[in-house]
From TrEMBL:
Residues 708-741 are annotated as: Disordered. This is M1 family peptidase. Residues 729-741 have a biased composition (Basic and acidic residues). InterPro entries: Peptidase_M1_aminopeptidases, Peptidase_M1_dom, Peptidase_M4/M1_CTD_sf. The keyword Protein transport does not apply. It comes from Fulvivirga kasyanovii.
Length: 741
C-alpha cells in the first residue's frame, strides 16, 4: 500500500512538472536577482547607502563676464577637488558640454533622417548642422595652484587633466581653467543655455547653463562617468560649494543659483528694501522690479558693468540668467524647517500670466514636494521666463509660457504651470537626490513627472491631469513594439523619449501608489528613498530596493514588467458563469430548458451576452469524507458551511492576460438593484498561471454587469473586453465622433 502511494505521488509530480515544462513560463514573479548589482558595503541590499559609502566633492570659485555687444562669455575658475574614494587617482575628467556644438560634434555626425518635401528651412538647417555659429569652448589655460600648466587632452565633450602626482584617499587638488565661448541664439540652435533676442527693443535675455567646465562624477558604481554628451542624456555631477562673480552691464538684473551676497551694491535702495520685505511676506509676491520699471530699464544702455556675487552650498551645478528686461517678484514660503524665497524673473512679454501664476506655482511646488519628500533645504527657488524652454538647475529654472496677443488660453495656462512645477520640482530629483541623468533619465524625469502630477492634482484640479497617469500612456503602451524601448534604457537609445522617460515611469508610480501598494505604504517608502539618498548618488537598484525595504511589498514582478519590458496591460473577461448551491427546495420552474444553466457566455460567435432567463447552474456541497481529516480528531460543521452558502449567488469569472504585463485585478460588480461593489485582487493572482486565471465571487444579490478596471487605474489598453456583458465595440467612425463631440 505504501509503495503504491509513493508511485502515485511520483506520477503526479512527473505529470505536474511535465505540464510546467511545456507551457511558456515568463518568470514574471521570479526575483530580479542577477539583474541588480550585488550589494556591498557601499550600497546595501536594503537600498540604503552602506557603511562605507563615499562620494567626491568639487568646490568652485568662478569669475564670469558677458559681452552684451558680441554675445561672448568669458570665464576663469578655480576648482578644489576632494578624493574621498579609497582609490588612487592619476587623472581627472572634466565635462566640456559646450563642445556638443563645436564643428564635427558627435551629435551632428550621427544625426540621421531622410529629406522630406516641404521641410521648413529652419528645420533643414538644423538637420544638416549648417548653422552659422562657431561653437565650443576655447580653453585658454589649465594650471595648477602654483600657476604651472597642466597636461590635458580633450576628447569631444570630455577633458582629461593629468595630475602631477597621484591623489590618494583624503587628498585634495586645486587647479584652474580659463575659457571663452560664443553664446548661441536659442531661436536658431536648440539648446539649454544661450540667449533670446528681442528685436522690438533690441535687447537680449541670457540664460546661461552648462557654461563652465564641470567635474565629472567618480563613484563606486563605475568609476569615472565620462560618457560623451551627445545632447539628450543630461548630466552626472558632483556636489560642492560655489562662489560665483557675474559681471554684466550695470542695467541688467541677474538671477542665479545661490544667495545674492552683495545685494546692497547691485540693487537700488528701493529694490533692496523690497527684497527684504519679500522675505517676510507669505500671502502674495512683492515686486522688487515692477513692470513699469522694467520697461523703462529696457530702453537704457549702460556703459559700465556691475558684478553680482552669489554663494551656494552643497549644490551640484550653477546656472544664471541676465537681462535688462526682467521684472522681478518674490514671496516667502513657510515650511516646517525652512523658509525659502520663491522668486520669478520675466520680461513684460510674459505678463499678465507670469505676474499672476509663476511665483504661486513655485510656492505650490515647494509645499507639496516637501510634504512628499523632505523640506526644501535651499534659500531660494527661482523661475525665469524663457521662450520655448523648460530646463532645471539648483535653485533656478528656465520656463516657457507667454500670452498670444494678451490672450491666456487654458492650454497655455496648463503648459506654463506644468513646466514651472516640473522644473522647480527638479530641485528634488536630481539636484538633491542626485541620480545619473546621462545613464538613467527616468530616475529624475519619471519621478519628477509623478510628483508634478500629484502637485497639480492637489493644487490645480481644474487643469489637465491626464499626463503621467495610467490613462495617459495607453496609446503609447499599445503601440508598435518596434518603436518602444524599456524604461531601463540609456537616454541616448530611447525611442519616444517623452513617454519613455516621463509619462510611463510616472504612470507606473501612479499604479504602484494607487493600486498595488496603497497611498500610505507608497508615500512612506517614497519618502524613505528620498531621505536616504538626498545629497547622494542613487542608482536604479537603490530605488527599487528602498521601495521594497520600506514597505514589505515584493515588487520585483512590478519592476520587471514595467521597467524591463515593453509588455502592456490588456486583461479581458473571457467567461462568466453563475452558480447557486442546490437545496431541497430548489426552484424547478426552469425544468426542461435545453440551454445549459449558469453559462453566461453565449459562444455562438464573438458577441457575449448575460442570459438571466436560464437561471443559475446548480451545484451541490456534500459532507466531508472522514478520510480527509487524517489524524485530526475534530471536525468542521458541514451543515453550517452549507447554510452559509445557501441562497448565495456565486460567479465564476475567467480573466485572460493578453498584453503580458501582470496587473492587479480591479473588478466592479453592478447588481440588479443598481448598487455596486468593487473587488481588488493583488497581481500575485497570476503567479501560477501568467496567462489565464479563474476566480469565484459570492454575493447575496444577483449581478447584472461586471467591469474590469472601471476607473482606468491599470493602463489597460483595450477597454472593449473589460465589461460583461460586452459592449459592442465602437467603430472607428463612432470613436471619431466621440472625440469631435
Amino acid at each position: 500500500m505504501r509503495n503504491k502511494s509513493i508511485f502515485l505521488l511520483l506520477l503526479t509530480f512527473l505529470i505536474t512538472n511535465t505540464t510546467f515544462a511545456q507551457e511558456e513560463w515568463g518568470q514574471k514573479f521570479e526575483q530580479l536577482g542577477q539583474q541588480l548589482p550585488t550589494p556591498n558595503s557601499y550600497r546595501t541590499g536594503s537600498g540604503a547607502p552602506g557603511v562605507n559609502y563615499w562620494q567626491q566633492q568639487a568646490d568652485y570659485k568662478i569669475d564670469v563676464a558677458i559681452d552684451d555687444k558680441k554675445q561672448i562669455l568669458t570665464g576663469s575658475e578655480t576648482i578644489k577637488y576632494y578624493n574621498n574614494s579609497p582609490d588612487v587617482l592619476t587623472y581627472l575628467w572634466v565635462q566640456l558640454d559646450q563642445n556638443v556644438r563645436a564643428k564635427g560634434n558627435l551629435d551632428a555626425q550621427t544625426k540621421t533622417g531622410p529629406i522630406k518635401d516641404s521641410t521648413t528651412a529652419k528645420s533643414f538647417q538644423s538637420q544638416m548642422a549648417l548653422e552659422d555659429y562657431e561653437g565650443g569652448y576655447k580653453i585658454k589655460a589649465v594650471k595648477d595652484a602654483a600657476g604651472k600648466p597642466l597636461k590635458y587632452i580633450i576628447n569631444r565633450t570630455m577633458m582629461r587633466v593629468d595630475l602631477p602626482q597621484p591623489m590618494k584617499k583624503g587628498d585634495t587638488f586645486t587647479f584652474s581653467i580659463d575659457w571663452t565661448y560664443n553664446i548661441y541664439d536659442r531661436m536658431v540652435m536648440n539648446g539649454r543655455g544661450g540667449y533670446e533676442y528681442f528685436p522690438a527693443d533690441d535687447n537680449y535675455a541670457y540664460t546661461c547653463a552648462q557654461w563652465f567646465p564641470r567635474m565629472a562624477v567618480y563613484d563606486d558604481y563605475e568609476g569615472w562617468q565620462n560618457k560623451q554628451f551627445i545632447g539628450r542624456g543630461e548630466f552626472a555631477l558632483a556636489f560642492g560649494d560655489y562662489e560665483v562673480n557675474i559681471t554684466v552691464p550695470a542695467d541688467h538684473i541677474v538671477a542665479a543659483t545661490g544667495e545674492l551676497t552683495n545685494a546692497k551694491e547691485v540693487l537700488t535702495k528701493t529694490q533692496y528694501d523690497r527684497l527684504e520685505q519679500a522675505k517676510k511676506t507669505f500671502d502674495k509676491p512683492v515686486f522688487i522690479v515692477t513692470e513699469e520699471e522694467a520697461i523703462a530699464n529696457e530702453k537704457s544702455r549702460a556703459t559700465k558693468n556691475k558684478t553680482w556675487k552669489f554663494a551656494a552650498k552643497n549644490v551640484r551645478d550653477f546656472a544664471f540668467a541676465s537681462s535688462r528686461k526682467y521684472i522681478w517678484d518674490a514671496q516667502a514660503v513657510k515650511l516646517a524647517t525652512n523658509t525659502p524665497l520663491a522668486m520669478s524673473f520675466y520680461p513684460k512679454e510674459g505678463n499678465p500670466l507670469w505676474a499672476d501664476e509663476s511665483t504661486k506655482a513655485v510656492k505650490n511646488t515647494l509645499e507639496v514636494y516637501s510634504e512628499r519628500t523632505f523640506d526644501y533645504p535651499y534659500p531660494v527657488a527661482i523661475s525665469v521666463n524663457a521662450a520655448n524652454q523648460g530646463m532645471e538647475y539648483p535653485m533656478i529654472c528656465f520656463n516657457f509660457g507667454r500670452p498670444r496677443n494678451g490672450v491666456i488660453s487654458e492650454r497655455l495656462l496648463d503648459g506654463m504651470v506644468s513646466v514651472i512645477v516640473h522644473e522647480v520640482g527638479h530641485n528634488y530629483f536630481p539636484m538633491i537626490v542626485n541620480s545619473d541623468e546621462r545613464q538613467w533619465t527616468w530616475m529624475d524625469e519619471g519621478l519628477n513627472t509623478f510628483l508634478e502630477k500629484e502637485t497639480k492634482r492637489e493644487r490645480y484640479p481644474n487643469l489637465d491631469l491626464e499626463w503621467g497617469t495610467p490613462k495617459g500612456v495607453v496609446d503609447y503602451m499599445k503601440g508598435d513594439k518596434d518603436n518602444i524601448r524599456p524604461i531601463m534604457t540609456n537616454s541616448e537609445q530611447v525611442k519616444q523619449f517623452g513617454y519613455n522617460a516621463y509619462g510611463k515611469p510616472s504612470a507606473a508610480l501612479t499604479v504602484l501608489r494607487e493600486t498595488v501598494m496603497g497611498p500610505e505604504l507608497f508615500d512612506a517608502a517614497f519618502k524613505e528613498y528620498a531621505n536616504r539618498w538626498k545629497f547622494k548618488h542613487p542608482k536604479p537598484a537603490d530605488f527599487f530596493r528602498s521601495m521594497e525595504d520600506a514597505s514589505a511589498v515584493d515588487l520585483d514582478w512590478f519592476w520587471k514588467g514595467w521597467f524591463y519590458t515593453v509588455d502592456h496591460v490588456d486583461v479581458g473577461i473571457e467567461e462568466v458563469k453563475w452558480f447557486r448551491m442546490r437545496t431541497e427546495s430548489a426552484d424547478i420552474e426552469n425544468k426542461g430548458k435545453k440551454v445549459k444553466k449558469g453559462d453566461l457566455t453565449a459562444k455562438g460567435g464573438d458577441n457575449k451576452t448575460m442570459d438571466f432567463s436560464n437561471g443559475p447552474e446548480e451545484f451541490s456541497l456534500v459532507e466531508t469524507d472522514p478520510r480527509y481529516y487524517g489524524e485530526f480528531m475534530n471536525r468542521v460543521d458541514d451543515k453550517a458551511i452549507m447554510q452559509k452558502f445557501e441562497n448565495k449567488n456565486l460567479y465564476q469569472v475567467k480573466f485572460a492576460n493578453k498584453g503580458g504585463l501582470v496587473t492587479p485585478l480591479i473588478i466592479e460588480f453592478t447588481f440588479t438593484d443598481g448598487s455596486k461593489t468593487t473587488e481588488k485582487i493583488p497581481a500575485e493572482i497570476w503567479r501560477m498561471n501568467e496567462k489565464e486565471v479563474t476566480k469565484v465571487f459570492a454575493f447575496e444579490k444577483e449581478v447584472a454587469a461586471i467591469k474590469f478596471d472601471p476607473n482606468e487605474e491599470t493602463a489597460d489598453t483595450n477597454p472593449d473586453d473589460n465589461t460583461f456583458p460586452p459592449r459592442e465595440a465602437a467603430s472607428r467612425f463612432d470613436k471619431f465622433k466621440q472625440k469631435v463631440n
